[in-house]
Amino acid sequence: MERKRILVIEDDDLHYELYEEALADYDLVRARTASEALAKMARSRPDVILLDHVLDRGEEGLDFLPEMKDLLPYVPVIVVSGALEAHQQLEALQGPRRAHYCLTKPVDLDELRRTLVTALKECGEVEIVRQFEALERSKRADIEDLLSRSTDRLTRQTAIRKRLQDSTERPNISALAREYRVARRTIIRDLNELIRRGELPEEIYPRWERTEEGEEDAGDASEREGRA
Length: 228
Description:
Blueprint: E1 5-9, H1 13-22, E2 27-31, H2 34-43, E3 48-51, H3 65-71, E4 77-81, H4 86-92, E5 101-104, H5 109-122, H6 125-138, H7 143-164, H8 173-180, H9 184-196, H10 207-227
Parallel strand pairs: 1-2, 1-3, 3-4, 4-5
Helix pairs in contact: 8-9, 9-10
């Protein structure tokens, strides 16, 4: 059986030596920073990612978690850190670009091995297949609509990226919303996702403007509710 590849993002030599000994049944690939890890992930897909939070060069692992999940959305991530507060652990385990597990340092190596076995068996592509099978069993009438909306979103984002990638002007949110027949907040979300994935430069829609747009939309919604 082919040995599973574990990408270990860990700057501490002692902890990495412990991993090497405890996880001798796996092929370990090491990165000392999240930036280095992203480059290695692009070249060779790991089966599981072990992610420390405090890394070399002042990097913080959780800051890079969204990029990792965008690059390899089906690869399970196990955060192993002694520097996270309880609320940070909860945040890491929530949302579409989440980690699957959070373990605390000093890590219990037996627990780590058990977690790896579970992650390889239950998470990643297996998890996605299981979710689709559950949808089929439940005979959800809206599954085609869900898939269509996902395709529409990607098509719209591709069109927006092609239009704006060589532009230096601030995009007209309202005009784009009218053209694609969606809400302004949908266009704002598309721009945020394109910028986060590096497909558009942040200069085209700076963070302070994105925040301002979000506040305006929230204000518009409150005003509509007040009139209702």
